[in-house]
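Entry 0007
Protein: Putative ribonuclease t2 family rhodnius neglectus
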Amino acid sequence: MPPQRRYISPTTVIIAGALFIFSSCGLTNSFYRLIRTRQSNEFDVLIFTQNWPVSVCLSWEAKQKTNTCSPGVNISSWTIHGIWPTKLGTLGPFFCNTSRPFDPDAIYGIQDRLEKQWSLIEKHKKHNMFWRHEWEKHGTCAAQLPQLSTEFTYFLQGLNWNSEYNVTTMLQESDIVPGKTYNISTIWSAVKKSIGKNPHLACFNDPVSKSSYLLEVRICFNKSLELVDCDGTKFENKWYFRRSQSLADANYTDCSLDTLVEYPLFIQQPPPTPTPIRPKQHFLIDMLKLIQLLAWATS
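Output (structure tokens):
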């Protein structure tokens, strides 16, 4: 008796084929993810980013009506946003070593300086969460360098650069001070004059008021921690290549080239709610009420 052929429905064939494809894709994706991870850890420059707290506050409050800024936070000095290892022509690398999570104890001895120089102005946000984000996203990639191999040395380098490359001083040397508006090329030229290299400038462009506020100054270092031009770096899907001496052609900024940029002086706080004042009653009326009360009590 000839063996009976087992019938396999088309549905079974489709399901089996789909499972095979998905499993193959999973292995392939894992393989390529491994390759990308290894490749993405490579970088060419370190971008040291400092921000102006007043503009940070304005951009934070513009995102949502309930967002407010912390009172008493340092708003008179440029603070640190981060040190970002960057591959020219692309973004990143990011999160290079998940086995090295942020450890608050590792920054013992410099935490007071970090709270002043690497601080948050956004209310209800914690400094530790900000530092954790910067270390795990960027610091673990910078740690490939011997000079930045630990959490302590990564943050300490940022503090030292913030003191050495003081943006307030750079701008003041070219008579650029808070509370006024400037052409962005004037600000860019002032920073370049001070450091001798091409920086990158970022602005907060308010969609409501259409005003442009100076937000960040970014300068670049090579792996020997020497200043270099920020040529070929990429920010938020925008390319910044040096094609000529003209700032407009070089695209070293996302700030408006057609209007003046504000270097804001202070944060405009909403006026306090007035406390209702109870009108004072006349002294004689108060005495009359007291006499009436005593007369009633003794009657």
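Curator remark: The first strand starts at residue 45 and ends at 51. The mean pLDDT is 80.
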